[in-house]
Amino acid sequence: MANTAIAAPEREAWTARLKDVGFWAEWAALVGLIVLVIVFQALNPTFLSAGNIASMLVAAAILIILSVGQTFVIATAGIDLSIASAMTLGAVAFGQAYSMGMGLALSCLAAIVASGLVGVVNGVIIARGKITDFIVTLGTLSAASGLALILSDGKPVTIIDAALLRLSTGGLGIFGWSFVIAAVVAVLGHVLLFHTRFGTHVLATGGAAESATAMGISTQRVKIAVYTISGVLAGLGAILLVARIGAAEPAANTAFLLNSVAAVVLGGVSLFGGRGSIIGPVIGALLLIALVNGLTLLGVSQFYQPLAVGIVVVLAALLTRFQR
């Protein structure tokens, strides 16, 4: 009798939560991913095959890394529109260094430095120059893309390296090395954002910059730091991209920019700053990859895939209105 009396309030509490739109807004990415998995598996039994899962995880690795970087920026109420171009510049820097015989390690360093410099420039101009992040990163988007074309003369550089080949094809079971790297980045990002003083300063800067300044937080340094983090992670993404396609391509892939922002929105990170999550954007990235992969398996034309992604992102953005 007592157990029944205790269980009744719990059931009522859960019923109230399920009726609360804010509850679904909090878990939109996870619920969406579960629904997609069930639907696509029912329509095509190969969706959850080991080979396809491994393929999706490898495809999600770069997007996860970029989404972590974008999360730090958006948590400060900013946005990094140059993240895909920074990655392209990093890939070109990698290719140029490798073609000059600098070796794999120095080539990786060149990629991270080149992309990281884009982040530093963004942060300094936004923080010190007090210019809107949208305008600054839009400008560096074009500048980084142009510089990549100039350095490469518009020609891709083929990279043939045994270590890179292992990075793109090896792994632990269904978890490819690129996904393992992305998972490590996500864990470190979570620790940095939620278990360090710097993370507290990031969220405070995005939540109320004036109050953060009054408390002694250097919001300018925080902004420079988050854009630098975004740039460095774009450089890491460039290395994985070169490993995956076997070449340093000078053509920017804007899909990475759009999808990185989409994954963050799906993950429940507030575009107005002050609210962050790392797990959410990771799930958002997996959802986007699963959506595209499932549509491909069903034979849906690639022309419809951006439409589907756009609809999902808009619905997620609408749900953020109800987030607590």
UniProtKB/TrEMBL annotation:
Protein topology in the membrane: Multi-pass membrane protein
InterPro entries reported for this sequence: ABC_transp_permease
Keywords of this entry: Cell membrane, Membrane, Transmembrane, Transmembrane helix
Main location: membrane
Subcellular location field: Cell membrane
Segments crossing the lipid bilayer: 21-40, 46-66, 73-98, 104-127, 134-152, 172-194, 224-245, 251-271, 278-297, 303-322
The protein's name in its UniProt record: ABC transporter permease
Organism: Nonomuraea guangzhouensis
